[in-house]
Amino acid sequence: MVSYKELGLVNTKEMFAKAVAGGYAIPAFNFNNMEQMQAIVQAAVATKSPVILQVSSGARKYANQTLLRYMAQGAVEYAKELGCEKPQIVLHLDHGDSLELCKSCIEMGFSSVMIDGSHLPYDENVALTKQVVEYAHAHDVTVEGELGVLAGVEDDVCAEHHTYTEPDQVVDFVTKTGVDSLAISIGTSHGANKFTPAQCTRDANGILVPPPLRFDILEEIEKRIPGFPIVLHGSSSVPQDKVATINKYGGALVDAIGIPEEQLRRAAASAVCKINIDSDGRLAMTAAIREIFATKPAEFDPRKYLGPARDSLKELYADKIKNVLGSADKL
Ligand SMILES: O=C(CO)COP(=O)(O)O
Ligand SMILES: O=C[C@H](O)COP(=O)(O)O
Ligand SMILES: [Zn+2]
Ligand SMILES: [Zn+2]
Fold first, then answer.
1. What positions does UniProt annotate as the active site of this protein (predicted)?
2. Would you say the pTM of this structure is higher than 0.95?
3. What is the tens place of the pLDDT at every residue in 43-77?
4. Is residue 59 part of a domain?
5. How many CB atoms lie within 10 A of CB 102?
6. Is 116 part of any known ligand binding site?
7. Does ipTM top 0.85?
């Protein structure tokens, strides 16, 4: 058993309290490899922002949970080397699906876990989440639970249809489980195709406009649990310049559409204090790599395409922090 505290990591408690009070949101970026980790830390240091490093089940399969944990430990030292005196970095399990997995992450040094029982019948979600909270809190680890099911299909995160969070359930859920934060479903979804064209309207230029998030549901939830930290998954905006670059250089993304940044700004100003972004980073890296493969076909040193992909990712994440989530200068 190694405690995250020995690794220089922090849990989400204090950073969420500050984010809710300050009307901004903490970025939660997924990482699977060194370049993504470096880009996230560089962006957080450059903007003086707290940051959540997220490990998904896909990441655990791809990169190995132990290696990712050591990378997160390294991230703290790396942030200091980059000039940040007191980095605030959380190592978080994204979409944990069992008590055993949450325990194994906590024992290895994760400072925060999500137990996603949102697909279970309500009482089973409560029971599972409560078990995780009991174990996690004994180690001063914070827990994110989820109520409501997001639309979309992405690897292990699969929900064929969505169910918005039922505001009448939230008081009972947070009271019975003791969770530290609650992920809700108000119209976001995972991946780069968040809406079908049929769900969208078109503006004067023929550009697809997605249906707005259900801020009415968010407001109802906030009324029931004032000041309680709310989490938004599936919050990539799917930047159309990245999509265009990918497709220009041989990609085949069709009807890729995300959540407009204006709506995320509005959410961040409310009790939403953690915003999950993964797909936008994937798009930024892929656009940079495709462009290099197409324009410099003689290049075969991975550093020559992974390096620019990392730079592009850093720039995108720094921009999210400064201009969308509002967590810059909050260290
Ligand atoms: O919610 C996420 C990770 O848990 C990521 O969402 P996106 O696919 O919108 O980036
Ligand atoms: O929530 C989903 C994240 O975007 C991670 O997905 P993944 O399991 O493909 O790594
Ligand atoms: Zn879920
Ligand atoms: Zn998610």
1. 94 (proton donor)
2. yes
3. 999 999 999 999 999 999 999 999 999 999 999 99
4. yes
5. 25
6. yes
7. yes
